[in-house]
Description:
Number of domains: 2
Helix content: 10-25%
CATH superfamily of the largest domain: Thiol:disulfide interchange protein DsbD, N-terminal domain
Number of helices: 8
Order of helices and strands: HHEHEHHHEEEHEEEEEEEEEEHEEE
Mean pLDDT: 89
Radius of gyration: 22 Å
Distance between the termini: 25 Å
Amino acid sequence: MELQGRIEDIRKQGLGLAAISYDSQEILAAFAKQRGITFPLLSDLGSATIKRYGILNPVPEWAIGPNAGDPTVQAEAQKYVSVVRPNAAMVGIAFPGTFILDRQGRVTARFFEDFYIERNTVSSIMMRLGNRKDGVAGTKISTAHFDLTTYPSDSAVAPGARIALALDVRPRARMHIYAPGAANYRVIALKLDPQPFVRTLPMKYPASEIYHFRPLNERVPVYQKPFTLIQEVVIEGTPQAQASFRGKESITLTGMLEYQACDDKICYSPASIPLSWTLSLRPLVVERPAPRQ
Length: 293
């Protein structure tokens, strides 16, 4: 179980860990013993807390109700509950996700998925919180305009993993890179090559600054200081995707980093850098506490 395997890394970041489920204390205790889980598993019988957080999944109830035969309801059930027919024991489940709370119990961040079988990895969440996992190899590239280090949140993934690719960019002295909102220039962007059962999510850009380019007397959003781009990628976990990945040892993501840079005198032509990340593939393990009797 990924959470248990990463618990020390989580604690090193000053975070605690607990999981909440609609299952009974007895079921969760047996599950924790079976899987060697040492962090708290909290029982929320009746899903009261799940409802208060606004994350109750209503689809199981729809799927066993009077509209169970509706094709739209069936499609929703396959996406949000299970590829097999939902049953009454599934009523009360939450949408899968993670909340980050401070010591006063206030939510400071949240990470949720649409498809029930897709999950943010612990490393991808920590990366988006600004923490890099030690031991993940990075690739270093130097250009005339900046130094680049890029690395994935996870070196090994299973179908259904939602991971992140980080690109640490350090512009050279007096150099700036164009940011979103810069008209008539090539904004820095990662263009991943499409491949089956791999989905790219919108790029996460940090805040930019306005630069006054005196030769043209224009003001444009740019990056002049070191910055990090985060590109989220989903390795899909549908039955079709699992069948496609079965027997493969790795998956390689490829693409181009496109950008345009200028210094305080010269505006350089748009440029592109080919990039790739090879990740080990591991099988998807789907296991939950035994169903309620």
